[in-house]
Amino acid sequence: MESSDIIVIGGGIAGVSAAAELAAGARVTLLEMESQPGYHATGRSAAFFAAAYGHRIVREITASCESFLLNPPDGFTDVELLRPRDCMFFAREDQQESLHAMLEEYESLAFIDAAAVRERVPVFAEGYLYGAAHERRGGDLDVDALLQGYLRLFRRLGGELKNDHRVDGLRFENGTWRVTAGAAEFRAPVVVNAAGGWVEQVAELAGLGSLGIRPMRRTALTVDAPDGISISDWPEMVDVDEEFYFKPEAGLIMISPADETPTRPCDAQPEDLDVATGVYRFEQATGLDVRQVRSSWAGLRTFAPDRLFVTGFDPRAEGFFWLAGQGGYGIQSAAAMAQMTRYLVQDIEPDEAFAAVSRYVEELSPARLLYA
After folding, report:
1. What is the pLDDT of residues 83-116, one digit of tens each?
2. Same domain, 239 and 283
3. 3-state secondary structure of 184
4. Same-domain status, 63 and 179
5. Domain containing 108: what range?
6. 14: number of CA atoms within 13 Å, CB side?
């Protein structure tokens, strides 16, 4: 049996970043069920930083991560984590109401007309667009560099990573959690449940009822760029009602139908219908004929019923901490949520840039889902 101060379950970006922050002041063991961290949702992210995306609380927490991503601490990484790219939320004539509602809610967005959108992204079909809300902030995230940076920090601080350790038992005895993963057993007074799409299963192993957190499948695919058109400086292009989105991706165009299909926790795979839907919506918007899908994949986005993060100790079980429900914001918010975890577990104030997280302890607490 191996003992530590904190056991983190889940080696996606949420678990790895939290484990790294916690390891500065505690002995931390990180358990990952796959052969490598970041295999599921983290490794299949759209990899974009969108400050004007999601609920007001999510936006504020996301915004607090921007300075970290642009200027990470010395030794964290030797590559850019965030490469600037703007974003446009575009609308058809029948989506005017949605567009203007977004413009009223988000002060950072500016209206641009259809001609200005087509000047930047000339593939839109004539007559398709009404206009767009333009977000000048944002950019492409190097997800692997971010993950590896936190892993290096975790190891440097003495943290212990255990790959191929699927948790299959949790019980609390005499102030200590005993966590089994196959033939191995670990113990610590605090368990952080950062298991992504599997968080409810982990809670069930601990004898806790559901909080209603559900994984949903999201599909993406890549297609060739049209001949003779440079796409490298295109913005991230998002339908204002999030019916689909697309952006440049390593010389290709990445498209997603923005599907949210409830599913069981699994190694998500793309469904032909979802791939076809993404292609169809892109073709309708552009008039282009997509002759070949170069690649396709799917991942799990995990949401609480109110679509806010779930972060904090469960009032039903001593020492059981939730770090869950990151939805489509997990990569871009990871740095802030790791600091929030450290704040709640170790009572260490967040760094100045992440002060926003301490304002939302009650709003993000798992208790809100129990006593709503």
Report:
1. 999 999 999 999 999 999 999 998 889 999 999 9
2. yes
3. strand
4. yes
5. 87-136+215-300
6. 30
